TrEMBL record:
Source organism: Dicentrarchus labrax (European seabass)
Protein's cellular compartments: Cell membrane
Membrane topology listed for this record: Multi-pass membrane protein
Signal peptide: 1-25
Molecular functions per Gene Ontology: G protein-coupled receptor activity
GO cellular component, one term: plasma membrane
InterPro entries: ANF_lig-bd_rcpt, GPCR_3, GPCR_3_9-Cys_dom, GPCR_3_9-Cys_sf, GPCR_3_C, GPCR_3_Ca_sens_rcpt-rel, GPCR_3_CS, GPCR_3_vmron_rcpt_2
Top-level taxonomic group: Eukaryota
Protein name listed in UniProt: G-protein coupled receptors family 3 profile domain-containing protein
Keywords recorded for this protein, A-Z: Cell membrane, G-protein coupled receptor, Glycoprotein, Membrane, Receptor, Signal, Transducer, Transmembrane, Transmembrane helix
Length: 851
């Protein structure tokens, strides 16, 4: 197994890794770690100090990255980090100062020393992953006992951004190494199942979004914009704020996201949205890294008059204190991490210079950032040379601002939390310890998980503030309310104008001194969130609720669903009963009724014609009894379509399907009998052939009765097992209730249609065989054509019926009944009526029989 199997990396693997023997466990001894462990790559720390116990530190010393070509065909060069951050460098020095103070203390960890390894994460998850892998390793193979014993690394101070902390925490979890973040406030870290080793000395963002929501409500800012960074911190913060605003009158005009890898074109699009929006209050959840170039582009666009509400991630960033920011950012208000006091920090920061650390590239970059010069010829920049002995002054606030340390103070507390936990661990008395069999940790072989136990329980005071962690690893929620005001030199000063105390009862946490606040545009009056000329200030442009929802309150931000049998009215203010729809006697229903009655009347007229001319040749030759049966069945077929019109009831649903199926089966059975008689009569090969005695009138009646009886049995079984019933369809069109007849049993319904189809196919085949029989009037030809039309109608019916909703399905079925009935009527009887009524001279046996 390798660490690569534990930590799948993005793209090609170019971070520091260790490989070791598959059979070697974390606790089993190995004779020579140098022969087993092999460093795959190297990543040098920013600062290293040896000690009895080592802690790691990960800081965003740069805020921009240049990604190498990652095509996985060769080992890529490392990520090039640029954009040096003096503020983060101050955090590093704060960690080093805290370790030195602890090592010099006679009360905390006496006789023991702390060491550290500090790495640069470049404020990016991928490079943060590289730093996490590097902090796990020693500086060489001989200094890497991670494979063979307890971890030499007891805890990690880091990371700043939540996105980076997610990566680092997951890498440390398999080794059960606790991690204390000084600046990762994402609410996601409170999930102990996902982040069991994570602690932080900064409040959970759930408290910050509660504070911002209360701030927006307090100043009646009801129309605001949201801008966030492309990371977990921004995503969870925005989700939390939207959740907090649900029961308020505050509405969000827009949501925009600054890309993680900064893109100027996308930034200009966001700025244009801000410029054109009526929302003049903008809440920003972002980190200092992406805000720096974004605000630079924002100022180039010369936009003023926006009231910024800043999150704790950038509200106290020293990089924004320059005088050039005030016309655009002055008046910004936000929630900052609670400030503290570190007595020796200012003096300690001034001890750092290029002469003291001649080989440290970060110190050289600090000088280049502060003085705009390079302290040695080895630097590749084009800046002028300087001595490296220049004095650090208060004007270098990005690095030297120690008057109100906030993030640096969190770093300071995190180091002391580890020291106090380790101190408590070493005070453990054998036999009264918290581990198995009341044992204590061995001072020369402490495991990180043992330190985590004491870290969870630690409580100590620092500068009068109590520090501890709850069961989720969170600390006590305090925020200072920060207002950006103009200082005496024109620079921006961070003025404390209030407090948010998360330990107080709900609704009482926010304390603000409003008279001390300077708003955007250097105004003393609270800005308005949105103004429309000639209209009162309002939260949003009112829009109606969606269909099916109503709201009976003015300016409500929620709509309620109507009950199932109700729908919203036109104004979406009340629920009214849904319109009930079925195939009624409206225009469509009346048209079908007229066609049905006309068809029945035509059939009875043909019946009358045939009865009146029953003794003529054409009626007698075509089997008058079967013709009368067919006409009777067709009349019923026309009339049964009326069953599909009107409000469905249990009886009408059962009757419409059974009547339709039995009448059509009767009609096709008669045609089948007639086809058999015609085929038998014209295929007799010699006089006296007795085939017709098997198809006499009695036999014909038996064929009709037996074929119809099969359909009657199917229908009876259908009605007994699962009869059709009226149903209310609310799915197809939610605004209406469609009354329709459910078939009950789909199998029975298709069996009924299938049986009719089988009869029609059999009649068609028999008539087709007799289509070329001699004679001037071949009945088989007309039966063949009638069956073709009948089959075409019902084959077209099936997809039309399946795809038609509600009352249209009934109309389709009714239309199919009428069309097929007319097809049978005209194909079978129109030619005969033509001869009877218009060509009586042809109504003779000689003419009909032909040759």
């Amino acid at each position: 197994m390798t660490l690569l199997t534990l930590f799948p990396l993005l793209y090609c693997v170019f971070v520091l890794t260790i490989t070791y023997n598959p059979v070697t466990s974390f606790t089993s001894p190995t004779p020579s770690p140098a022969k087993v462990c092999t460093l795959q790559n190297s990543f040098q720390p920013a600062f290293v100090a040896r000690g009895d116990y080592v802690i790691g530190g990960i800081f965003p010393l740069h805020y921009n990255q240049e990604m190498p070509d990652l095509n996985c065909t060769y080992r890529p060069p490392p990520v090039n980090c640029n954009g040096f951050d003096p503020r983060a460098f101050r955090w590093v020095q704060t960690m080093r100062l805290a370790v030195e103070e602890i090592n010099q203390s006679t009360e905390l960890l006496p006789n023991y020393t702390l060491g550290y390894k500090i790495f640069d994460s470049c404020a990016y998850p991928l490079t943060g992953q590289r730093a996490a892998m590097a902090v796990l390793n020693g500086l060489n193979e001989d200094d890497t006992p991670l494979c063979s014993g307890a971890s030499p690394l007891l805890a990690v101070i880091g990371e700043s951004g939540s996105a980076q902390s997610i990566v680092v925490s997951r890498i440390l979890q398999p080794f059960r190494i606790p991690m204390i973040s000084y600046f990762s406030s994402c609410a996601c870290f409170s999930d102990r199942r996902k982040y069991p080793t994570f602690f932080r000395v900064i409040p959970n963002d759930d408290y910050q979004v509660t504070a911002i929501a209360q701030l927006l409500v307090r100043f009646n800012w009801t129309w605001v914009g949201l801008v966030r960074g492309d990371h977990e911190y921004g995503r969870f913060a925005v989700q939390g704020l939207l959740r907090e605003l649900q029961d308020t009158k505050v509405c969000v005009a827009y949501q925009e996201m600054i890309p993680l890898l900064y893109n100027r074109q996308r930034a200009l699009e966001i700025i244009e949205v801000m410029r054109s929006s009526l929302a003049k209050v903008v809440v920003v959840f972002s980190a200092e890294g992406e805000m720096t170039p974004f605000l630079r582009d924002y100022m180039i666009q010369n936009i003023t008059g926006i009231q910024w509400v800043a999150s704790e991630a950038w509200v106290t960033a020293s990089v924004f204190t320059g005088s050039e920011y005030y016309p655009y950012m002055g008046g910004t208000i936000g929630f900052g991490i609670r400030k503290g006091h570190i007595s020796r920090l200012s003096d300690y920061l001034q001890t750092v210079n290029p002469q003291m650390y001649p080989n440290n590239l970060l110190v050289k970059e600090l000088w280049e950032a502060l003085y705009g010069c390079k302290p040695s010829l080895s630097s590749s920049t084009q800046l002028p040379l300087c001595t490296g002995q220049e004095s650090l002054l208060e004007q270098h606030s990005a690095y030297m601002n120690t008057s109100s340390p906030r993030v640096a103070y969190n770093v300071y507390k995190a180091v002391y939390a580890i020291a106090h936990s380790l101190h408590n661990l070493l005070l453990c008395q054998p036999g009264s310890g918290p581990f198995q069999n009341n044992s204590c940790a061995q001072s020369n072989n402490i495991h990180p998980w043992q330190l985590q136990y004491y870290l969870q329980e630690v409580t100590f005071n620092i500068a009068g503030e109590e520090v501890n962690f709850d069961l989720k690893g969170d600390s006590i929620p305090y925020y200072d309310i920060i207002n950006w005001q103009r200082g005496t030199g024109g620079n921006i000063e961070f003025v404390n104008v209030g407090l948010f105390d998360g330990t107080k009862p709900a609704g009482e946490e926010l304390v603000i001194q409003e008279d001390r606040i300077i708003w955007a545009g250097h105004q003393s009056e609270v800005p308005v969130s949105a103004v429309r000329r000639g209209e009162p200030v309002c939260c949003f442009d009112c829009v109606p609720c969606d269909s099916g929802k109503i709201s009976n309150q003015t300016n409500s931000i929620e709509c309620t669903f109507c009950p199932e049998d109700f729908w919203s009215n036109k104004d979406r203010t009340a629920c009214i009963p849904k319109e009930v729809e079925f195939l009624a006697y409206d225009s469509l229903g009346i048209a079908l009724t007229v066609i049905s009655v006309v068809g029945a009347c035509l059939t009875m007229a043909v019946f009358a014609v045939f009865f009146h001319h029953r003794n003529t040749a054409i009626v007698r030759v075509n089997n008058s009894e079967l013709s009368f049966f067919i006409l009777f069945a067709l009349t019923l077929c026309f009339l049964c379509s009326l069953m599909f019109i009107g409000e469905p009831t249990p009886w009408s649903c059962m009757l419409r399907h059974t009547a339709f199926s039995i009448t059509f089966s009767l009609c096709i059975s008669c045609i089948l009998g007639k086809t058999l008689v015609v085929l038998a009569a014209f295929t007799a090969t010699r006089p006296g052939d007795n085939i017709m005695k098997w198809l006499g009138p009695k036999q014909q009646r038996f064929i009709i009765f037996s074929c119809t009886l099969v359909q009657v049995v199917i229908c009876a079984a259908w009605l007994i097992d699962a009869p059709p019933f009226p149903s209310r369809n609310t799915q197809y069109e939610r605004s209406k209730i469609i009354l329709e007849c459910s078939v009950g049993s789909s199998l029975a319904f298709w069996c009924v249609l299938g049986y009719i189809g089988l009869q029609a196919c059999l009649s068609f085949v028999l008539a087709f065989l007799a289509r070329k029989l001699p004679g001037n009037f071949n009945e088989a030809k007309f039966i063949t054509f009638s069956m073709l039309i009948f089959s075409a109608v019902w084959l077209a019916f099936i997809p039309a019926y399946i795809s038609s909703p509600g009352n249209y399905a009934d109309a389709v079925e009714s239309f199919a009944i009428l069309a097929s009935s007319f097809g049978l009527l005209f194909c079978l009887f129109a030619p005969k009526c033509y001869i009877i009524l218009l060509k009586p001279e042809k109504n003779t046996k000689q003419h009909l029989m032909g040759k």
